[in-house]
Amino acid sequence: MANIHGKGGDVTFAASDDTLGQVTAWTYTSNSDTARTTGMTASFESFVPGLDTFTGTCEAVAVTTIDIPADLATSSELKLELVAADAQAFTADAILTSITETASIDDVGRLTLAWEGNEDTVTYPA
Amino acid sequence: MIRQTATAIMQKFNSDSNLQSLLSGGLYFHQAPQAVSSPWGTFFVINVSDDEIMGSSSDVNLRDVEIQISLFSEKTDGGEEISLITEIFTEVFDWTNLNVGEYHVYKVQRTGLGPITILDEIWQSNISYTIGMTKE
Question: ipTM for the complex?
Answer without folding.
Answer: 0.71
